[in-house]
Amino acid sequence: MALKDKWKLGVAALLPHEWVFCTFLFVTGLRLFTNNATRGWAFVFLGCLASAIIMVFWIERNPTPWRWRVRLWFCFVTMGVSFFAMGAAVPLLGHPRVDDLLLHWDRDLLGETPAVAWEAWLYSWLENLAMAGYLFFFYYLIAGPGHYSSRDILAFRKCIVGLFTIYGLAFISYTVFPAGGPHLAMTFQRPLHGSWLFDSTLDAVIRGSNTVDVFPSVHVAASLYLLLFDWQHCRRRFWWFFAPCAVLWCSTMYLRFHYFVDILAGVTVALIGWWTAQRWNVTQVLSSQGESAVRPLQRL
């Protein structure tokens, strides 16, 4: 097969989330490459892009279930590398932080952003509970897809399609609307304090942020999407994880990491990811049905 034909097949093999995330990597890398001062960071994003494309071609050569799992889990690698790279790269793009704009939107909608309005409800035990819910996100982000990875490769692939469509869209937004969140942009009358869990984990949580990852809230978007996915594919897990996710959603504002409009944007992105996964899955089902109908005709 000619190299040109192989390239066309490789491009056709890209899944929806790969189109979205590779677009983020390409556009961000290109924007950084055009400036000598930021060119070094461009190679991080373009390197992630190259590795993602190489992964697709590697799978297409021999698409075994094991290789498919490697390809799908590799999304977490490119996501993690690009996420932390944005902390240094995005400020170099020259976009001002939009915390004031997000706060303005909150006050237009609610009168005051929840991080301020909920100051009267600061209790040590509640802050510990909120942090437990916030940390639950990191477990669910891996255990949610992991449940399907070990049991149903087709469901796992569908899960990743929607999940990383969400991440691609969120990361694009972070490069255009960078913001640090209320805990970095605002001054509060009362500090947060929880002697059991909150105090011992807050520094790690803050270090895990790239300080531009606010609008939309990917904590809300990804966890809501995974809940919807469990509702469809494993109802029992949905009921197990609904309460921790509800605490997680509230904790994003209670612990001053997000504005209310970040949550609304997160819900919107989650629904886009959900729609993308469902739509893609329908096309796969129709395609497989078409192939099943053609095979008997080919034997005639």
Q: What is the compact description of this entry?
A:
The protein has 300 residues and is an all-alpha fold.
What is the distance, rounded to the nearest whole angstrom, between the alpha carbons of the first and last residues? Answer: 28 Å
The total count of helices amounts to 13
Give the proportion of residues in helices.
Answer: over 70%
Q: Which H/E pattern describes the elements?
A: HHHHHHHHHHHHH
Number of strands: 0
The low-confidence parts are 1-10, 291-300
The fraction of residues in strands falls at: under 5%
Kindly describe this structure.
This protein has helices at residues 3-12, 16-33, 39-61, 65-92, 99-110, 114-117, 124-149, 153-176, 182-185, 198-207, 218-233, 235-254, 260-299. α7 (124-149) runs antiparallel to α12 (235-254). It has one domain. Residues 1-10 and 291-300 have low confidence and may be disordered. The chain has 13 helices and no strands. Helix content is 78%, strand content 0%. The two termini are 28 Å apart. The relative contact order is 0.13. With 300 residues, it is mainly α.
Topology, please?
Layout: H1 3-12, H2 16-33, H3 39-61, H4 65-92, H5 99-110, H6 114-117, H7 124-149, H8 153-176, H9 182-185, H10 198-207, H11 218-233, H12 235-254, H13 260-299
Key attributes of the depicted protein:
globular, disordered N terminus, 13 helices, mainly alpha, 300 residues
